[in-house]
Design a protein that fits this description.
The longest helix is centred in the N-terminal third of the chain and has 21 residues. This protein has one domain: 3-Layer(aba) Sandwich (Rossmann fold). The strands form three sheets. A seven-stranded mixed sheet has the order 1-2-4-3-5-6-8, sandwiched between helices. A two-stranded antiparallel ribbon has the order 7-9. It has a two-stranded antiparallel ribbon with strand order 10-11. The N and C termini lie far apart (about 55 Å). It has eleven helices and eleven strands. α4 packs across α11. β1 and β2 form a beta hairpin. With about 290 residues, the chain is of the alpha/beta class.
Length: about 290
Amino acid sequence: MKVALAVIVLALFAGTADAAQKQCVGAAARDPEKMCVDDSKRVTPTPDEALITPNVACARGDLADSCTYGSHVPLATVALVGDSHAGHWRAGMDALAKSRRWRVVEFARPHCPFSYSEPAPTEAGASDCVAYNQRVVAWLAEHPDVASVFVSNNARLPMAEKGMGYKVQGHVAALRALPPSVTRVFVLRDTPTARVSTPDCIRRAVRRKLTPGTQCAIPRGRALVTDATAVAAQQLGRTVIDLTPFFCSTKQCFPVVGGVLVHKDQDHLTQNFSRTLGPYIGRAVDKAP
């Protein structure tokens, strides 16, 4: 009887462990509220697949470089603004929007952060960037039903003037320009970056049946830089959603998390990993004041 009971207990424990392992996909593998062990040797998508996988589809919006997605029967509309580092949150925002019946209007113009400071002249469309953001602000004023705005920018984007002060000043000005109808602002802190050599490192690790997430990890100080948009948001008392713990430990950042490839290139998320971050964006929104 005791032997049979022990077998049952072990079986139940194994079932619980298996269930936990099944939840360890993507960002969930670094969720402190889950019992996960992130030692996967699989990688989805592969680095080669990621390069040719398009972003989540979206319908054309009212302004250039804008589009809409999310619930087909929305209860609310939210906006996502910024440069291409706003766009790479699309899969996560889409997952969140569908779960909460939101419609997302995205204004993600490449090389054009949501800022009233100008990008460097070497960046495509730099001369029209501030004017474009003013048009986005005007659109928001014309649509007072959009009360929540998410903002994310490329923290490494070269600007017209060097120095953190110029960057922060532009972000502060843009955030202050948002109309009174926007009552909640959430800044998604910019994500860590990978190395040029990271895809080859991952391929070698997979061939050798090693764990690519740890084998190809990047020092946190190299992968993560100060985000001027987050600094500006903190100065204004806006909410910063910092999901860095889902990418990094205190010392390293991981290019594969929970078996999912994090970056499609050096600094843009795969839609696969972005999608797994959707619940954690929602968790941060729920905890915000």
